[in-house]
Automatic annotation (TrEMBL):
It comes from the Bacteria. GO terms for molecular function: carbohydrate binding. Belongs to the bacterial solute-binding protein 2 family. The gene is alsB_3. Residues 22-41 are annotated as: Disordered. InterPro entries: Peripla_BP_I, SBP_2_dom. This is Cytochrome c. Pfam families: Peripla_BP_4 (PF13407).
Length: 334
């Protein structure tokens, strides 16, 4: 299944519209990037979110494995130091630009923190592909730049899928949502998808929706407090699996593992093992490696085509399907 999804992703690279910055794969980094890359290697930098999150760590590993099999393409993968080091990630991107890579693929910590970096890359003639987590494309266009395109998951649908599953399992009752960091686009979308679905269902009530900051320990504390304030709570939806594993720990600590179900997001390895063991009820998965590889493929194509920033063009976004992992099908994803 994963091979099929990846094949679809890579085929989709060829269909994305042209709306980005020009680049060159010339061995001489001081040369103009106007002519595209016909000689020498294409050197790509990938800037991801923290490697401490298994979702991004496995994407990094997948991209590096892909790069080993590419002729004439080299890839360096960088990761942000932490979820809250917003300025630090921008500084990483500025350092990458100074090294004059032919293209950059970037997953920001927030919608706005890498906008300045994208504009600097455009000024330098370096195409930028947006990886999974949204960079504010309107702000980039207002600054006179643009990005090649974006591969991501429809995160509103991710939250909706989780809420549908919870509703099917409990029928009615009180539920809570553990969000990511406040203001994060992915977190907002997943929370919206779940909240809107719950609110559309008779008998379902969202009694709390609070940030867990993508952190396991923080989520333990948040979930503990929510359960104390809402003793009739029946389920948690968590915007990623790191938080879901922490929330499940809080549920066990409260002795409510038979009363409160926990559903996560991302289908990381530990979460899938937890589902298999009958702990987490489910997790909504994404093809994170496929997303990362497709972004790199798109970056290579942008360099070869000699793309240039066109602020008047809309940045194309390709949505990749998500999937629900439960105890009934978890073995298919291990």
């Amino acid at each position: 299944m994963k091979k099929r999804v990846l094949a679809v992703l890579l085929a989709g690279v060829m269909t994305l519209g042209l709306a980005a910055c020009g680049g060159s794969g010339s061995d001489s980094k001081s040369e103009s990037k106007d002519s595209g890359s016909s000689d020498g290697d294409i050197n790509i930098a990938v800037l991801l979110k923290p490697e401490s999150n298994e979702y991004w760590a496995s994407m990094k590993a997948g991209i590096e494995d892909w790069a080993k099999d590419q002729d004439g393409v080299s890839v360096d993968v960088y990761c942000a130091e932490s979820e809250d080091n917003i300025q630090g990630q921008l500084e990483q991107m500025e350092n990458i630009i100074s090294k004059d890579y032919d293209a950059i693929c970037a997953a920001p910590l927030s919608a706005s923190n890498l906008v300045e970096g994208v504009l600097k890359a455009c000024d330098a003639g370096i195409p930028v592909v947006n990886v999974d987590e949204g960079i504010d494309a309107d702000a980039v266009k207002e600054g006179g730049g643009n990005m090649v395109g974006m591969y991501t998951t429809d995160n509103v649908l991710v939250g909706q899928k989780a809420a549908e599953y919870i509703t099917e399992q409990i029928g009615s009752g009180e539920v809570a949502i553990i969000e990511g960091t406040a203001g994060n686009v992915t977190s907002n979308d997943r929370t919206k998808g779940a909240t809107d679905y719950f609110e559309s269902q008779d008998g379902m009530e969202v009694v709390a929706s609070q940030p867990g900051d993508w952190d396991r320990l923080t989520s333990i504390d948040v979930a503990t407090n929510i359960m104390q304030s809402n003793p009739d709570l029946k389920a948690f939806y968590c915007a990623n699996d790191t938080m879901a594993l922490g929330v499940y720990e809080a549920v066990v600590n409260a002795g409510k593992q038979d009363k409160v179900m926990v559903v996560g997001t991302d289908a990381i390895a530990n979460a899938k093992e937890s589902v298999k063991n009958g702990e987490l009820a489910a997790t909504v998965g994404q093809d994170n490696v496929g997303i990362g590889v497709a972004c790199c493929e798109l970056a290579v194509k942008a360099v070869k085509d000699g793309w240039k920033a066109d602020p008047s063009a809309e940045m194309p976004v390709e949505y990749i399907d998500s999937f629900l992992v439960t105890k009934d099908n978890v073995d298919d994803y291990l």
